[in-house]
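Re: the 147-residue chain
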Amino acid sequence: MKHKISHPRTLIPDIIFIPAELREGDEYYVNGIFEFNITRLIGHIKNNSETFIPENVSVLEFNNDFSVIDEDYIDSVIIDEPVILAEIAPGRYNLIDGNHRMEKAKRLGFKNIMAYKLSPAQHIRFLTSRNSYENYITYWNNKLSEL
């Protein structure tokens, strides 16, 4: 009899998951069917700075082909604050906050920029709906099974 061995990074749904619903004025990021509350995520990072250590990442690894850049705003952007990368699939990170900082760093010829690289356990709680949360778990676990 064969036993299916689950991957150590398999996500198990939390039946008491509470979405990080958007409040008026909250910044959010939509990645396909996944919507993240960026305002609450940034607040969590700042309140738990000992847990979230920024690291250098290559600017060229993250392109903004699907992001809209506000050309009037980009000159005023300060790139000292780390961008936020979320591990959306195993080993694959998406830029979910800091598109203007990343774009400005590219334009200035920076090779690296500081970033918070968040695992699913660190970012999943900032999804804005139960549907998005459940779909993310299914997506992640399917990607793990493809490995």
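Strands lie at 28-31, 34-37, 55-58, 83-89, 92-97, 112-118.
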